[in-house]
């Protein structure tokens, strides 16, 4: 495993598993399987409504909590709720979160950030992050918040490697967690000749080449899967290294394509979307 050291000195694994779009039972099974396979970083969220299942999966695995890097996110409708973080901890069955994000840049994000800062000071949160935030709001957080953010979570893949954002992050020591790391299942991305060529060269799959590219680009990745074999394959990327020439060839794939755009209308919907019970 390789690790990323955040600007507060906390280290996190550069690869793990995400449980987006999983039911609580699916999250429980996938998390338990991943941990039993050696994965040590888990990414969930209030908004996924499977934190309880994630917590059950952690306990089912038998892996000690201190050996797991647990990531979750607050949803906008609870940013200002004084008990939101304690309720998150209760659902997960833990007394601390390794990395806690604000999930969306709704108008009340500043109040939510102060809520996380308070939990950070109390030791309930080890690191603070911002998910899906545009660069102007990231800069505001860096300039105005007492505790500077340690991590951002955004869409990133070979079609859209977040080159400009990474320049900004490099100045602050912030890291990047990449969602849609394989391009939202886009077969045209996966089938790019460069990935097929490198897969043959290294005896890996096209997906493993892309995930390895992320690691060498400095991205923390958390691809989701319900299939134990796929979980193991997604994690089997630390026994080889792409050359500088390989990385340069992959850079040519960049075409600026994104799969998600957060319109003002969508952000307004997030601000009003109440969470369903997490069973």
What labels describe this entry?
TIM Barrel; 14% strand
Please render the helix and strand layout as text:
Layout: E1 3-5, E2 11-13, E3 17-18, H1 24-36, E4 41-43, H2 51-61, E5 69-74, H3 84-92, E6 99-102, H4 109-121, E7 128-131, H5 135-144, E8 151-155, H6 163-172, E9 175-179, H7 187-190, H8 193-202, H9 206-216, E10 219-221, H10 228-235, H11 244-251, H12 264-272
* Estimated share of beta-strand residues: 5-15%
Could you say which structural class the secondary elements and strand pairing correspond to? alpha/beta
CATH class: Alpha Beta
Number of strands: 10
Mean pLDDT: 97
CATH topology: TIM Barrel
Q: What's the CATH architecture name? A: Alpha-Beta Barrel
The coarse silhouette is globular
- Beginning-to-end CA distance, first to last residue: 32 Å
Strand order of the largest sheet: 3-4-5-6-7-8-9-10
Please indicate the count of domains. Answer: 1
Order of helices and strands: EEEHEHEHEHEHEHEHHHEHHH
- In CATH terms, the superfamily is NADP-dependent oxidoreductase domain
The level of helicity is 40-55%
Low-confidence stretches at least 5 residues in length (pLDDT < 50)?
none
- Enumerate how many helices there are, as a single number: 12
Describe the sheet with the most strands. Answer: 8 strands, parallel
Rg, rounded, reads 18 Å
Q: Your description of this structure?
A:
This protein has one domain (11-271): TIM Barrel (Alpha-Beta Barrel), CATH 3.20.20.100. An 8-stranded parallel β-sheet has the order 3-4-5-6-7-8-9-10. It has 12 helices and 10 strands. By secondary structure, the chain is an alpha/beta fold. Helix 1 (24-36) packs parallel to helix 2, helix 2 (51-61) crosses helix 3 and helix 8 (193-202) crosses helix 9. The longest helix has 13 residues, at 24-36. The mean pLDDT is 97. Belongs to the aldo/keto reductase family. Substrate binds at residue 103. Keywords: NADP, Oxidoreductase.
